[in-house]
Amino acid sequence: MSTYYGPDFDALSKQDPEIAAVLLSEMTRQQKNLQLIASENFTSRAVLAAIGSTLSNKYAEGYPGKRYYGGCEEVDKAENLAIERAKSLFGADHANVQPHSGASANIAIYQAFTKPGDTVMAMSLAHGGHLTHGSPVNFSGKWFNIESYGVRSDNELIDYDELRDKAIATKPKMICSGATAYPSLIDFEKVRAICDEVGAIMWVDAAHFIGLVAGKAIPSPVPYADVVSFTTHKVLRGPRGGMILAKAEHAAAIDKSIFPGMQGGPIMSAVAGKAVALAECATPAYQKYAKDVIVNAQALAKALEAEGMRAVSGGTQTHLALMDIRSTGVTGKVADERCGAAGIVMNKNSIPNDPEKPGITSGIRVGTPSTTTQGMGVEEMKQIATLIARAIATDDASAHSAIKSEVHALTSRFPIYQG
Ligand SMILES: *Cc1c(COP(=O)(O)O)cnc(C)c1O
User: Fold this and answer.
1) Is residue 357 classed as helix, strand or coil in its secondary structure?
2) How far apart are CA 145 and CA 120, in angstroms?
3) CB 381 within 8 A of CB 419
4) Which CATH superfamily is domain 287-411 in?
5) Scanning 69, 122, 212, 364, which has the fewest C-beta atoms within 10 Å of its C-beta?
6) How far, in Å, is the centroid of ligand 1 from the Cα of 128?
7) Positions modified as N6-(pyridoxal phosphate)lysine (predicted)?
8) What is the pLDDT of residue 56?
9) Which residue's CA lies nearest to atom 10 of ligand 1?
């Protein structure tokens, strides 16, 4: 008797060659090109096995021991493991591991602590905030009165004086810190003091940097914040999904807000994948990885500065660098396209007070979670900076294919999934 436990690529190829071909060429694309998108990473095979498993078949509305469906005894074990691992890794009172994504986790937080029309403070999108921090095209901007704060123009670091003044003036219910393109550390102690002064809930959206916290490479928001939301697929290197950590007093409100508040059944395969990733994060190897990610980001930013670009905020203390590339004479959009033609995948990004529109931009955002997972180090970062500068400097297609060959030679030395 043979038992089927998980994904079977041969079966897929036979049944659906079109989708099998997409999977193969996507794997090739990830392996051959340089992956510098700051919000991406390569999960382990163990995580892939969990998310490709039969746990995907199971409905489990509710929470372990309190489900609305029968047959949840096995998935309950997976969810309890994920919860216990999250609480122990981050020293949190409470963990909800069910959010389908970072955006879902954030919706649940708004719902738990505010009503439509309430005032919430968050980082300005133009200065690195996320869509769910008040974009006019997002539920957050449509349903809430968002007061945004930004970075100082002299040093491009969060303007805590502006944050405090605005908080005193507008009396927000909740203050969010966290961003998608902020290369520096956030002073959680200062934010806590402001929240206490105005009686606001302190919410940290740690999606980008929580993996660095997990690896003990940067300070944690958990001791300060009422509630911390994040994605599990960025530096943290888990499956695509979200998670919320909360102080004990907010545990019931958060759980209710996720289910039945805004989700139905959890994706139990993803929950199992989160448990696997959290166990990986507790290892010395991951802690070394988290430190290496920052060392690499700093080396990349420095090397790009040597090529004449300017690092926003004067450099990076995290996994990403935001580069002002106006000195190159091209926009972020053009740089993004030229690098893409040379096999270097990253994204255009607005810089603080960017004179260009968000679709054009004066900057690029580069991150090191993926290349560091591949095993690249400081020497490779220097080489990558040169390749980026050369790709940006030309619009010649044959020059871009020559750079692409060098990119492929580099990445072939760092296989993502061996064997
Ligand atoms: C990535 C990110 C999110 C959203 O995560 P999704 O899983 O894409 O919904 C939310 N907030 C911040 C700060 C992020 O960086």
Assistant:
1) coil
2) 6
3) no
4) Aspartate Aminotransferase, domain 1 (3.90.1150.10)
5) 69
6) 12
7) 234
8) 97
9) 102
Residue 419 has pLDDT above 80, yes or no: no
d(CA 374, CA 370): 6
3-state secondary structure of 349: strand
Residue-wise pLDDT tens digits, 50-68? 999 999 999 999 999 999 9
pLDDT band at residue 1 using 50, 70 and 90 as cut-offs: very low
- State how far the Cα of 232 lies from the Cα of 382, in Å rounded to an integer: 29
CB-CB neighbours of 414 under 10 Å = 14
pLDDT band of 5, cuts 50, 70, 90: low
Domain with CATH 3.90.1150.10 in the chain: 287-411
Range list of β-strands (E), 129-188: 145-149, 174-177
CATH 3.40.640.10 residue ranges of the chain are 51-281
Ligand 1 binding pocket, CB closer than 6 Å: 39, 101-103, 106, 130, 132, 178-180, 205, 207-208, 231, 242
Query: What's the CATH architecture for 51-281?
Result: 3-Layer(aba) Sandwich (3.40)
The span from the CA of 336 to the CA of 331, in Å, is: 9
Say whether pLDDT at 88 is over 70.
yes
Count of other CB atoms within 10 angstroms of residue 165 = 13
Tell me: the pLDDT tens digits for 254-266?
A: 999 999 999 999 9
Q: What six digits make up the tokens of 357?
A: 């529109």
* Residue 5 is among the residues annotated as catalytic for this protein: no
Q: How far is CA 315 from CA 32, 182, 262, 366, in A?
A: 28, 10, 39, 12
Q: Is 130 annotated as a binding residue?
A: yes
Could you tell me which of 50, 42, 44, 109 has the C-alpha nearest to residue 81?
50
Quote the CA–CA distance of 378 and 375 in Å, as a whole number: 10
- pTM of the entire predicted model: 0.97
| Distance in angstroms (rounded) separating the CA atoms of residues 330 and 393 | 8
User: Which one of the listed residues 87, 164, 190, 240 is annotated catalytic?
Assistant: 240
Q: Are 9 and 20 in contact (CB under 8 A)?
A: yes
Of the candidates 330, 379, 322, which has an alpha carbon nearest to the alpha carbon of residue 353? Answer: 322
User: Beta-carbon neighbour count of residue 141 at 10 Å?
Assistant: 18
DSSP 204: E
Distance 104 CA to ligand 1 centre (A): 9
